[in-house]
Write a structure and sequence with these properties.
globular, Ubiquitin-like (UB roll), 5 strands, 5-stranded mixed sheet, 11% helix, alpha+beta, single chain
């Protein structure tokens, strides 16, 4: 099944997963049925090791709604990955 990932700055270059879309604003990838957000994140090397996901305060929005890492991805889901930052 196919899903889309936006916010590519958080994902980095994952050419081995990327399906050509002609867009530099999103990435389409194929995942197996039953894949959770956690399982997907572990396949994205730019995200770093899973034990650091809490440290970077990663938030995953699916179709505009915040979801937990145990969410099971559905065909056509659109993910936005956000790492909150602050400055001062």
């Amino acid at each position: 099944m196919k899903i889309r990932i936006k916010s590519l700055f958080a994902v980095g270059t994952t050419d081995h997963l990327r399906e050509p879309t002609g867009s530099k604003k999103e990435m389409r990838i194929e995942v197996r049925e039953g894949t959770t957000i956690d399982e997907l994140l572990k396949t994205l090397p730019a995200m770093g090791p899973p034990e650091q996901f809490d440290d970077i305060m990663l938030h995953v929005f699916v179709n505009g709604r915040l979801k937990g890492f145990d969410y099971v991805l559905q065909p056509g889901d659109v993910l936005d990955l956000h790492i909150p930052v602050s400055g001062g």
